[in-house]
Each structure stands twice: as C-alpha cells, then as structure tokens.
Write a structure and sequence with these properties.
Blueprint lengths: L2 E4 L9 E7 L6 E2 L4 E6 L4 E5 L4 E6 L6 E3 L3 E6 L21 H10 L17 H9 L15 H16 L2 E9 L1 H13 L7 H15 L5 E4 L2 E4 L5 E3 L1 E2 L4 E2 L2 E2 L7 H16 L13 E5 L18 E15 L2 E15 L5 H16 L7
Parallel strand pairs: 12-16, 16-17
Antiparallel strand pairs: 1-8, 2-4, 2-7, 3-6, 4-5, 6-8, 9-18, 10-11, 12-15, 13-14, 17-18
C-alpha cells in the first residue's frame, strides 16, 4: 500500500516548515519509528519519524526548501513501485549566435544571454559583442542572499509586533556583584559535578523578586491584565541562524543547582537546534544576557506575551565609594524594558530594587 506523507503541523502556530535534513534516500527501506527528516518549524528544529513500513519512493521537498503544512513531503510504499526522483524545472531558451561571436564570448567571459542579436532572426554576431564591450560596464558589489527560515520569519514578525504594539520604556540600575562573585567561588569549590554560573544567580534572583512583585509577572490582553501564579523564566539563547528562548518553569521554587543543570542542558540543545517547541512555551518573564560578550549595557525588545524583559551586562571591576571610602566593586548594569500598559514606572523601579538586594546579598536566596 502506498502512503502519502504530508508536511506535519509540529506546533500550534506553524504554517510552513523547512526540511533541514533527510535521514533516508530515495529507495531506502523505511520502518515505523525510523527518523525520516529534520524539519524546522517557527519555533524549533524537530525530528520527524515515519509511521509506516516500506520504501521511500518520493521526496516532495528537498533539503533546504520550505513548504506549507499539508504539502506532500514524501511517499512510502512497496518495492514494486518505481521511485520518483525530484526534478528541477528548467526553461532554457536556445540562443542563436555565430561561431565567431561564441569564441569572443568565451574569451571575454561574457554570457550570451545578456546580448541582443542584430543578425538574421535575432542571431548574435561579432558586431553585437563589439557594441557590448564598448559600453561602460556597471560595477556590482558581490552579495549573498539567504532565504529566511520559518523560524526567522516568525521571530521578525513577533519583534516588530512587540515593538510597535507595546509601549516600551526602560529602567536601568547598577548592581555590585562582589558578594555574589565570592559566594559563587565558594559554592563551586565545593561542588563536584556542576558549576553555578552568574546567569544561574540572575535567574534565581529574578524569580524571587517576581514573587515579591507579582504585577511584573503579567500579560496584557485587550480588556484585562493576566497575573500569572507560576513564575517561568525564559532565557534568550542565540544560535548562528536564530534565537531561542528556553523556559525554566517555576524558577522561584528551584535551588540554584537545579536551575544550573536544567539551564545548561536547555542552552546546549537550543544551540544545537535540538530543543523541543514545548520547552520554549509558557514564559512569564525573560532574561537576555550579553555579559559574556563584554557588553556593558543594552536594551531589549519585550518577548510578548511577557510584560518585561531584563537585559544583563558584563561584570566589571570598578572603584566604588562605601562608607566614605573608595573600594573595588564588581559592577553589573541591568536594564528592564517594561510594557507601560501593565507596568508603571514605580512598580518597575521597586522590582529592580528588590532584584538588586538579592544579587548584592546572595545569602538571601537560600535562607
């Protein structure tokens, strides 16, 4: 029996998919449960398994090409059906030219398709090449055009929608991370199998501060504001081609080591484009950290439907004044982008003050 395989809908918002890789070639035997292809959706790259037994008889979407949901992806059937090979359509028009014109074109590396012939029936002759060579040629700058993937299209559309529908404003604050630097060093010296990162502290502190300021943990709807009971922290992770936001669910209830293990696993799989779309759903607050790139301060576009996104800069040793004396501090700058429809300036400022207290006194995170 011949089975028709169509482009699956791998997420609720998926409208088209891109075939990243075929695991089977035409004519290969396919068993139920075998990996058939990798498909990039609007959220992630997912592996697609066969539900049938037989042989791969037709590939409808080559690697690197996109198609809408329900388009023909492949055909699986018995061996007595001849495989159909994907053929590219060509519409090449025959070009008539004289032998001398072709010789000149080869020597001068000229494409005859660019030349308009003046000979009989439009035949290209020597004088047409001479006229073409006498004209000043346009200097073009080489460019590389890359088609947008479904994921990149969705990211672009959502960022534009967020920037122009949510009235952003930004609050900035400096945090002295000296105690966290020392506290992290002690913790990591006593842990055998995992290491706590500064980002783990920021996730934990952000979640605990959200517990004290629940208005930040909200979503705007046209006729209401939704306040979320769960505190789910999304972490922006960049790959070479896209941006992923894996989510740490109920981060306020997890210990630092739990956050560290879960975060590292999800970061790694996100960069390898192996993370599942369900692992990037349900965030109520987002963190974007560019500190590892040496960026001191920046602002971010809110990851809707969140009301806020926290931008984290690098930690720099700087002189600070404490108790009338100049001492060395480890200064980190934070920027909080807020949706003014849900978060007033005073509310956002109070949240940042609490976050600063947690990060400057990390012992409060485990007491």
């Amino acid at each position: 029996m011949v089975e028709l395989i169509t482009m699956p809908r791998l997420s609720d918002t998926m409208e088209e998919g891109t075939v990243v890789k075929w695991y089977k070639k035409l004519g290969d035997k396919v068993s139920e449960g075998d990996l058939l292809a990798e498909i990039e959706t609007d959220k992630a790259v997912q592996e697609f398994e066969s539900e049938y037994n037989g042989y791969l008889l037709y590939i409808g979407i080559p690697e690197g090409q996109s198609a809408t949901v329900d388009s023909v992806l492949a055909v699986i059937g018995p061996t007595d059906v001849k495989p159909v090979y994907h053929k590219e359509k060509t519409n090449k028009k025959r070009i008539f030219s004289s032998p001398l014109a072709r010789k000149i074109a080869r020597e001068k590396s000229i494409s005859l398709s660019k030349i308009k012939g003046s000979g009989e029936n439009g035949r290209i002759i020597k004088r047409d090449l001479d006229s073409y060579l006498e004209k000043p040629q346009k200097v073009t700058t080489p460019v590389r055009e890359v088609m947008l993937s479904p994921m990149r299209k969705v990211i672009a559309n959502r960022l534009v929608e967020s920037k122009f529908t949510a009235p952003h404003y930004y609050l900035m604050i400096e945090v002295d991370m000296k105690n966290t630097v020392q506290y992290r060093k002690v913790i990591n010296e006593n842990l055998k199998y995992i290491k706590i990162s500064f980002n783990d502290f920021i996730i934990k502190a952000s979640a605990m501060a959200l517990r004290e300021h629940p208005k930040i943990n909200s979503t705007w709807k046209e006729d209401q504001i939704i306040y979320h009971d769960n505190i789910n922290i999304g972490i922006a992770v960049a790959s070479e081609e896209s941006l992923f936001v894996p989510v740490i669910l109920q981060a306020d209830k997890k210990m630092l080591r739990q956050i560290s293990v879960e975060a590292k696993d999800k970061y790694s799989r996100a960069r390898e484009r192996k993370i599942q779309s369900k692992e990037m759903e349900g965030s109520t607050f987002t963190i974007s950290n560019l500190g590892m790139f040496g960026i001191e301060i920046f602002t971010s576009i809110i990851n809707q439907p969140n009301s806020c996104i926290l931008s984290v800069g690098t930690i720099l040793e700087k002189p600070v004044i404490k108790n009338g004396k100049i001492v060395t501090g480890n200064i980190m700058k934070l920027s909080l982008a807020c949706d003014h429809r849900t978060i007033d300036g005073a509310t956002g400022s109070a949240y940042l003050r609490t976050l600063k207290q947690f990060l400057e006194n990390p012992i409060m995170m485990i007491v």
